[in-house]
Amino acid sequence: MKNNTYQEQFFSWAGLFALSLRLVIGWTYFSAFWRRMVLEDKLSPEVAGYVGEKFNHFLPNALGIKPLIEYLVSNPDKLEFAMIAFTIVEAIVGLFIMLGLFTRLMSVGVFSLAMGILLGSGWLGTTCLDEWQIGVLGLAGGFTIFLTGGGFYSLDDFLMCKNYAFTSKKWFNYLGSGILTIKQLKPLVLVFSLLIFSITLFTNQYFHGGVFGKLHNKSVKPKVEISNVMLADNELTFEVFRVEGADVYGSFLIEMQILNEKGEVSKSWNMNYLSKFPQEKINNYYVAKVKPGKHSLILPLGAKADLSVSLEGLPKSEIKTLKLIDISGAEWTAEIH
Questions:
Q1: Cα(255)–Cα(331) distance, rounded to whole angstroms?
Q2: pTM for the full model?
Q3: Same-domain pairing of 260 and 144
Q4: What CA–CA distance (Å, rounded) separates 150 from 216?
Q5: Are residues 115 and 191 in the same domain?
Q6: CA distance 252 to 225
Q7: Which of 41, 45, 150, 285 lies at a 20 to 30 A Cα distance from 335?
Q8: Are residues 204 and 251 in the same domain?
Q9: pLDDT of residue 4
Q10: Which of 336, 328, 331, 238 is nearest to 290 (CA)?
């Protein structure tokens, strides 16, 4: 009995020491709900800043979950449902973690949400590798809170002090707070800590080259992949996919060129044409859409589309290469078959 009292005190104090971590992590997730549903509406597909489009930005370089992301952004109705459900989960997990209610169960939620963020958007971040940091710190924070439980200043502790019957059940120690009765806890903590550290190092290297070799950041410069280039009946059709660059603004195409075998321009479309590019000649795949803007053709991060242009009157001998030119000066080319 005396030993149990000591252990209860130990976990109560451990939870207290993690209080600031619990509050901050809780708010980072609850604030997602607060931003999207209270301060503004970001869950309606029709509004600017729709969270589904931001989710689409994750697609090009996501790790392990790319097929899931592509499926959702290819199906707008399912994406909208998923974004609403995800936001509700973030709200519940964040609020319950801050309150310290079913703390250990919610810490598993924190760990899972952080893993999703890490795998999906860990490659994004123009200056500070923002999403990667959020992801790996969420893993470590979720695991730490699972170990400590809520402790003092938590609803779990309040319920236990009131001696509600369910708080004396063994399951409450694993889902709520209290004594964590796990055999060989010390080596298990070491193993899981090293696992989280390994995930941190691996993803840091995979996404950014941050452990060895050359550093890289795929959120800095725009990159567009051109594929499926086909010429039929004087109509050139090709696929564009924006795979790198900042997620907060698009790639702005200001010129398209057709080059001959000598590399000379045989036909071009300037920014005036691209800013009025016919919508019927754009076939978008995802919710992030290629579309004409005020001065250019805009390619948001993660957007994929088939584009068509007419080469009527241009001899085949003058058709060799397609070149796209971004306002930044970046250029991308593809052979025409």
A1: 10
A2: 0.90
A3: no
A4: 39
A5: yes
A6: 14
A7: 285
A8: no
A9: 62
A10: 238
Q: Note whether 16 and 153 are within 8 A (CB).
A: yes
Segment 283-322, tens digit of pLDDT: 999 999 999 999 999 999 999 999 999 999 898 889 899 9
Q: Which of 63-67, 180-184, 297-301, 323-327 has the lowest mean pLDDT?
A: 180-184
Separation of alpha carbons 154 and 213, rounded Å? 45
Closest C-alpha to 306, from 232, 236, 221, 233: 236
Q: Please give the structure tokens belonging to residue 290.
A: 């290629």
313 phi and psi, to 5 degrees?
A: 85, -5
237 lies in a domain? yes
Does residue 273 share a domain with residue 236?
yes
Residue 116 exposed, middle or buried by CB count within 10 Å (0-12, 13-18, 19+)? middle
Q: Which domain holds residue 327?
A: 223-335
Helix (H, G, I), strand (E, B) or coil at 294: coil
**Residues 6+ away with beta carbon under 8 Å from 200:** 136, 139, 140
Number of independent structural domains in the chain: 2
Query: Is the four-CA dihedral 145, 98, 81, 292 of positive or negative sign?
Result: negative
If asked whether residues 198 and 241 sit together in one domain, one would say no
Q: Which CATH number characterizes residue 315's domain?
A: 2.60.40
On whether both 1 and 144 belong to a single domain, the answer is yes
Domain boundary, last residue among 178, 208, 238: 208
Q: 3: pLDDT confidence band, cut at 50, 70 and 90?
A: low
Strand 297-299 and strand 235-244: the pairing is: unpaired
End-to-end CA distance of the chain: 81
For residue range 119-144, list pLDDT tens digits in order. 999 999 877 788 999 999 999 999 99
As a whole number of angstroms, the distance between CA 47 and CA 40 comes to 10
Both 229 and 331 in a single domain?
Answer: yes
Question: Would you say residue 113 lies in a domain?
Answer: yes
The sign of the dihedral angle between the CA atoms of 142, 146, 150, 152 is negative
**Residue 136 half-sphere exposure toward CB, CA atoms < 13 A:** 20
